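Friendly challenge for the regulars: who can give me the structure tokens for this chain first? No prize, just bragging rights.
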Amino acid sequence: MTRPPSAAQRRVIDAADPVTGRLRGTEAQLAALVKRGLAFRHPRPPHDHFLTPAGHRTRESPAQEPTVPAAAAAAGGGGFAARVGGEEEEEEALDAAGTAGPARVREVHSAWQGLLELRRMTNPDGAMDRPCGWERTHLVRAAALALEAAGHRPEGTDGDGYRVRATPQPEAVAVYGPAGEALGAYAATLEAAGWQAGEYTEARTRARCLLASPRRA
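First reply, four minutes later:
Bragging rights claimed.
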């Protein structure tokens, strides 16, 4: 089965002249379309590129959108698990310098992009700057993914980094860090990801934490 065009290639195809099929794009994009048989390079100067019949058919067919299950799997399923902090096995995802290894960085980036796509597909207005229903039913994992995707480190055996935990409050998680400064950075990250967060002192332990919940508007 022929692999569908990439998102960038699809944008070039969709932007083709509706009458002549003339294309505009980078040399690499145009060459890739030629290689796939979706475009040809005119032999005469200025050697513009045009859609082939297969390219025209591709433009006329609806773009293949990822399904909701696929986006959800990228965000939090399919074997991927957001690092919530405080678990010894999380050390396996770190390199010798104590930071996330390349494979983990790629996994987290893919999961975050999947979550943004899930927001676009499931929020009534298509908003990507506001948490979606999946996040509201997976609060701990969603908040942890937002933190890890921004480059924050989950707590490991050294006691450094963030921890995300459930709370008795509806639609709220607690985020702990090694220092007050870290809480401010975590709050800024979560707010940029569509959450609302405020610092809180626990009555029993006097520990400082963030209480964070998904923003609704």
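Residues 102-122 form the longest helix (21 residues). The chain has two domains: 7-60, 68-214. Your move, everyone else.
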